[in-house]
Amino acid sequence: GENVEQHPSTLSVQEGDSAVIKCTYSDSASNYFPWYKQELGKGPQLIIDIRSNVGEKKDQRIAVTLNKTAKHFSLHITETQPEDSAVYFCAASVDNDMRFGAGTRLTVKP
Amino acid sequence: EAGVAQSPRYKIIEKRQSVAFWCNPISGHATLYWYQQILGQGPKLLIQFQNNGVVDDSQLPKDRFSAERLKGVDSTLKIQPAKLEDSAVYLCASSHRNSGYTFGSGTRLTVV
């Protein structure tokens, strides 16, 4: 089955700096790659996603890139703000079978 | 649209007791998932339903966990008997085709 690895496990940045989280996946059939943000006491919330026929997608301060050949994808957050502090999960999916990375705890220091 | 509803939000039980969680997915979402999230880890799939049929329950500890979605809408997940290592957040999610899941807020289970 699919195996998703996520790095780093923790990330601390200064407000205004950029943050990058990277994931790799094992199943070349995976074709859907969402990113979730989980705040304390809440369920994960979808923040951005990308499909395998696209190499990059951007939504305001958040962007995701996908390299199918290397089987890795990344989340980029620019101009970070304290409210970006949360745990971020990547996932890889094929046919509604989604596997999650272990998560990255992002701390944005004011 | 209304989100995924889960109840209860919190539950504390003693080991060997039983517990049940309830989930009502987003209307029209045929696929429903139950995930277990242990503190500090990513969600781990327990069971996936497509309408009222089970698609994947390979990681469900079937000696103590059971789940049903009888009418293809809401679902219950039961643990009987509970063990200390079952302490976790149990997340329900639903999706429409191969798109992003919508998660509920989860049920935090503490087994003492």
Please describe the topology of this protein.
The complex is a heterodimer of chains A (110) and B (112).
Chain A: E1 4-7, E2 10-14, E3 19-25, E4 32-38, E5 45-51, E6 56-59, E7 62-67, E8 72-77, E9 86-94, E10 97-100, E11 104-109
Parallel strand pairs in A: 2-11
Antiparallel strand pairs in A: 1-3, 3-8, 4-5, 4-9, 6-7, 7-8, 9-10, 9-11
Chain B: E1 5-7, E2 10-13, E3 19-24, E4 31-37, E5 44-50, E6 53-56, E7 65-68, E8 75-79, E9 88-95, E10 102-103, E11 107-111
Parallel strand pairs in B: 2-11
Antiparallel strand pairs in B: 1-3, 3-8, 4-5, 4-9, 5-6, 7-8, 9-10, 9-11
Polypeptide structure, described:
The complex is a heterodimer of chains A (110) and B (112). With 110 residues, chain A is mainly beta. Helices cover 0% and strands 59% of the residues of chain A. In chain A, a hairpin with a 2-residue loop joins strand 9 (86-94) and strand 10 (97-100). In chain B, the strands form 2 sheets. In chain B, strands 2, 4, 5, 6, 9, 10 and 11 form a 7-stranded mixed beta sheet that branches. A 4-stranded antiparallel beta sheet of chain B has the order 1-3-8-7, with no helix packed on it. Classes of the chains: A mainly beta (110), B mainly beta (112). At the A-B interface, strand 4, strand 5, strand 9 and strand 10 of A face strand 5, strand 9 and strand 10 of B.
Notable traits:
heterodimer; A: 110 residues; mainly beta; 5-stranded antiparallel β-sheet; 0% helix; 59% strand; globular; B: 112 residues; 7-stranded mixed β-sheet; 11 strands; 49% strand
Form type of chain A: globular
Uncertain segments of chain B are none
Q: Provide a count of the helices of chain A.
A: 0
Which residues of chain A sit in consecutive blocks of at least 5 with pLDDT less than 50?
none
Number of strands of chain B: 11
Average the pLDDT over all residues of chain B and give the rounded result.
93
N-to-C series of helices and strands of chain B: EEEEEEEEEEE
What share of the residues of chain A does DSSP label as strand, in percent? over 45%
Helix-strand makeup class of chain A = mainly beta
**How does the major sheet of chain B shape up?**
7 strands, mixed
Average pLDDT reading of chain A: 94
